[in-house]
Amino acid sequence: MDRALPMAMSDAHLRAPQAGGEESLALAENLARGSSDPEQAREAARIFALEGLRERAIDVLRQGILTHPRHSEMLASLADLLSRTGTFEEADLYFGKALESEPKNVETWYLQGLHHGRQGHVAPAQAAYEEVVRLKPDHVKAWVNLGLALADGGDRDGARRALERAVRADPGCAEAHSNLGVLLAEAGHKEEALDEFRRAVDINPDCSESHFNLGWALLAGDELAQAETTLSESVRLDPGNVEGLYALALLHQRTGSYARAVSELKQAIEKRPDDA
């Protein structure tokens, strides 16, 4: 069993708007046109982005920055949107301006960490998350992502300490438990890993990845009946979960259910033909 368990980065998620579709867009346009207030411009951009109109959101923020060139949160919002669209060099520029305007803004440092992580830049991502937790020691998502950055950089002990700190700060953080379980499993601490995976599933039973991690660990321990139930739930929650389908195929091969194993392999290949 040589497939690695996935570790989940804790991303920044925009909140869903209260109104949808045309009503939301009308509200956003009114906010964008009706006031020079930077907070209204940011809210308009947030709604446009949620509705899939990122270019319009970027335009609103650019216009707002013309009036408020040193508004750190608006600069950071623009940088984040540019990063999400893959315009990384310009995003770097606006993150720099945001931090120059407000060097101790925790959210800007956090968004910059995500920005570096999207590009696979481990060291600067780690540095950004370290600054977040220095400024705000109970920032759970930063501890989670710092743990991932440290793991990516080869510091597994440091990663474990960061994830344990995340769990202490928020015992209800499923991502922290799940990622800590991955590290424990890699280190051979099977029972501790299972405990963490079970906690993650209990906290967030709708997370396909948490079910997959638990199912894979159960499969590794030859607890096949529980593994089958858990992996099947992972695939039910996310039908595009190719890793879950591969794991179920391996399980059914072990149990002699060859027709089911072949069916799951075919489904996995259809969803990701490059793996064939």
In short:
This protein has 276 residues and is mainly alpha-helical.
**How many helices?**
15
Largest sheet: none
From the alpha-carbon coordinates, what is the Rg to the nearest angstrom? 22 Å
Structural class: mainly alpha
Query: Which residue ranges are poorly predicted, with pLDDT under 50 across at least 5 consecutive positions?
Result: 13-19
Q: What is the beta-strand fraction?
A: under 5%
For this structure, the CATH topology of one domain is Serine Threonine Protein Phosphatase 5, Tetratricopeptide repeat
CATH architecture of one domain: Alpha Horseshoe
Give the end-to-end Cα distance, rounded to a whole number of Å: 18 Å
| Structural shape | globular
What helical percentage do the residues reach?
Answer: over 70%
Helix and strand pattern? HHHHHHHHHHHHHHH
CATH class wording of one domain: Mainly Alpha
Oligomer: single chain
Total E-strand runs: 0
Fourth-tier CATH superfamily name of one domain: Tetratricopeptide repeat domain
Instruction: Average the pLDDT over all residues and give the rounded result.
Output: 91
